[in-house]
Design a protein that fits this description.
The protein has 1 helix and 20 strands. The chain is mainly beta.
C-alpha cells in the first residue's frame, strides 16, 4: 500500500510538471514584449563601425542581430550589436521589385514564449540607413537591352555614395526622353521604365540612356537600347 501511495504521488507530480497546471509550477507568459534599437542613424561611412544596443521590454531573453541579406555586401554585425559597414555602398539587383540602393537594414530580434503556441512570438526593431563614400558611383544593373517598337523595358539605375541618392534619367541627352527616341520615368520600384517609340528613330535603332547623379552631376553612366 505504501508503494502504491508513493507511486500515486509521483504520478501527480509528473502530471503537474508536464501540464504546468499545479500551483506555483504554472508558467507565466510574458505580455506586450517589445524591443527598441538605438541609436537612430540615417547614414554611415563605408567601412565604419557602429555600436547598436537593444532594449527589451517584458522579456529576459537576450536579443540577437541580423543584417538584411542581398546580392551586394551589406556589412556584418556581431552578437553584441557591433556593426561594420561594407567597404563600398551596396548595389543590389532587385529584379524589378522595390529596393533602396546604397542602403542597409540592421534588425534586432527577441524570441519569447506564447501560451498554446509551439513556435512562440518574436519582437523586432530595425534601422535602415545609407552607406556613404568619398565619391558618388552611378551605373545600371543591366546596361544593354533590346526593345520592340512601342515596348517597354525596366532598367535599374543607381547613384550611391551620397545621402542624396536621387538621379536624373536622360535619353540621347534629353531629360525624360522625347517622342522620337522613347521616354523614361522612375517608377514606384525605384527603376527606370523605358517606353520605346512606335516608329524607328531617324538616328537609327540605338538609343542611349544616361543616369546623372543629382548630388554630383559630373558623375554619369550610360546604357544602350536597341529598338527593333
Amino acid at each position: 500500500m505504501e508503494f502504491e501511495q508513493k507511486l500515486f504521488a509521483l504520478s501527480i507530480a509528473c502530471c503537474c510538471v508536464l501540464t504546468c497546471g499545479c500551483g506555483s509550477l504554472a508558467p507565466v507568459f510574458p505580455q506586450n514584449v517589445s524591443i527598441s534599437m538605438s541609436p537612430k542613424i540615417t547614414s554611415l561611412a563605408a567601412g565604419a563601425v557602429q555600436q547598436f544596443t537593444a532594449t527589451v521590454t517584458n522579456e529576459t531573453a537576450a536579443p540577437y542581430w541580423l543584417v538584411a541579406s542581398n546580392s551586394s555586401p551589406q556589412g556584418t554585425i556581431t552578437s553584441s550589436g557591433l556593426y561594420t559597414a561594407p567597404a563600398v555602398p551596396p548595389i543590389n539587383n532587385y529584379n524589378g521589385f522595390p529596393g533602396i540602393q546604397g542602403a542597409v537594414t540592421v534588425q534586432a530580434r527577441v524570441d519569447y514564449p506564447v501560451q498554446n503556441n509551439f513556435f512562440g512570438g518574436v519582437a523586432t526593431d530595425s534601422e535602415t540607413f545609407v552607406i556613404t563614400a568619398p565619391s558618388v558611383t552611378v551605373g545600371f544593373i543591366t546596361n544593354t537591352a533590346s526593345v520592340p517598337l512601342g515596348g517597354t523595358y525596366k532598367f535599374q539605375p543607381y547613384a550611391v555614395g551620397s545621402v542624396d541618392r536621387k538621379y536624373t534619367l536622360q535619353i540621347n541627352g534629353m531629360t525624360g526622353g522625347a517622342m522620337g527616341y522613347g521616354t523614361i520615368v522612375q517608377d514606384s520600384a525605384n527603376a527606370g521604365l523605358y517606353t520605346a517609340p512606335t516608329v524607328m528613330p531617324m538616328t537609327g535603332p540605338d538609343v542611349t540612356i544616361t543616369v546623372v547623379s543629382n548630388a554630383d552631376p559630373t558623375k554619369t553612366a550610360s546604357a544602350t537600347i536597341t529598338v527593333h
